[in-house]
Structures are given as structure tokens and as C-alpha cells.
Design goal:
disordered N terminus; about 40% helix; 7 helices; alpha/beta; globular
Length: about 210
């Protein structure tokens, strides 16, 4: 997909852990051919090298990976659109704004993965045996439940709310295409995905 917009653009696939970000990101990358940057893919090789990794070191590596994302985006041409998969709420909003400015990003779209506390806990618990050592374990579940009750999108541009338990990749892709065809973004908007469900195919979430 190409556009005539010269702004450097990013699509933030944002949500708490276990909300289905990676599943949606992979599907969108395959559909549009956009490159993907994920916090975990940058962080986990270092976790393996420096094992054992405790919660504090995990967070330090996460902060370094966060900075690396903006360094990579900053070196890319303005015509490139990036899919960035992360829980952006783990850092202050001001740090995200700083990273976007540093990378020369002029337009931000956000896919906000909505998930209930019960579903988030169930998914995270089911994945505990698959997680690399150094990621938080079962002790994180109460914190995750509270996070699911309070988490909000970053809303630095148009936002699409996506039901993490009922992903519709085609509807999300249509919204992205509509947004990217616009010449500019004047103010944050928040759209429920129900408005786009005339042409949809369910996408099974990775649980």
C-alpha cells in the first residue's frame, strides 16, 4: 500500500501484556508488507545473554529496547510506515512524545487492544510456560488484573478500539487504509471497531 503523504508515520499496536498485540501485528504486516518493531523482539536476545534476569533488569532492558525502536524509525525514510507492537503504558506519555519527535514521526495511528481483566489474566497464565526466563511470572497476575482495569490508549492521534477477544483484521486494515489516505490528522479521534464491521473476517487471537 502506498500513499502520497510525506509524513513519517507509525502505527502503534498498543495494549497490556496478553492482549493480542502480536497476533494482530503479524496479520497486518502480512497484509500491507510493513516492517514490524516489537519491544520483546529487541529485548529478549539480551535477556538470554544476561540471564538470569530479574524484574528490575527486565525493565532496564525494556527501556533500552524502547529507545532502540525510535533510533531505528529515525533512520528510516519518511515513506516507510512502521508497525510498533508494545505496551506503551509502561513508560510516561512524555517519553513516547519525545521518542516520536526524535524519530521525526509526523503522524501517529493507534490500535488499542481492549481486554477484560479476567481474559488478560487467563491468557497470561496460559503462556507462563512459554515465556523466556526473566519475564514476570505468576506473581504478576494480580498486577496485570489491576492494569487491565485502568489502562488507557496513548491517544496521540486517531485511535481504533479493537476487541482483543474478537479480532477482525479486515476491519482494522480498512480503518488504517482510510486514515492513511487522509492528507493530515488534525486531532485525536477514538473509533469503535463496530463502525467498520460490514466487511470483516474474525482473526483468532493467540492465547
Amino acid at each position: 500500500m502506498t500513499t502520497n503523504n510525506s509524513l513519517k508515520r507509525v502505527v502503534l499496536v498498543n495494549g497490556i501484556p496478553a492482549s493480542g498485540k502480536s497476533t494482530l501485528t503479524r496479520a497486518l504486516s502480512q497484509r500491507f508488507g510493513w516492517p514490524v518493531l516489537t519491544l520483546d523482539s529487541l529485548k529478549e536476545p539480551f535477556m538470554a545473554c544476561f540471564a538470569p534476569v530479574d524484574r528490575q533488569r527486565n525493565r532496564q532492558l525494556g527501556c533500552a529496547a524502547y529507545q532502540a525502536i525510535w533510533n531505528i524509525v529515525g533512520q528510516a525514510p519518511a515513506s516507510q510506515i512502521w508497525l510498533i507492537d508494545a505496551w506503551f503504558g509502561f513508560q510516561p506519555r512524555a517519553l513516547l512524545e519525545q521518542g516520536l519527535q526524535q524519530a521525526g514521526v509526523g503522524a501517529v495511528l493507534e490500535l488499542w487492544m481492549q481486554i477484560t481483566p479476567e481474559e488478560a489474566v487467563a491468557r497470561y497464565q496460559a503462556r507462563l510456560s512459554q515465556r523466556l526466563p526473566g519475564h514476570p511470572g505468576a506473581e504478576y497476575l494480580p498486577e496485570l488484573r489491576q492494569l487491565a482495569q485502568q489502562a488507557q490508549p496513548m491517544a496521540l492521534g486517531p485511535v481504533l478500539q479493537v476487541d482483543a477477544c474478537d479480532l477482525h483484521e479486515a476491519a482494522v486494515a480498512r480503518w488504517l487504509q482510510q486514515q492513511l489516505e487522509r492528507n493530515s490528522y488534525t486531532s485525536p479521534q477514538c473509533s469503535p471497531i463496530e463502525e467498520l464491521q460490514d466487511v470483516i473476517t474474525p482473526l483468532s487471537a493467540n492465547r
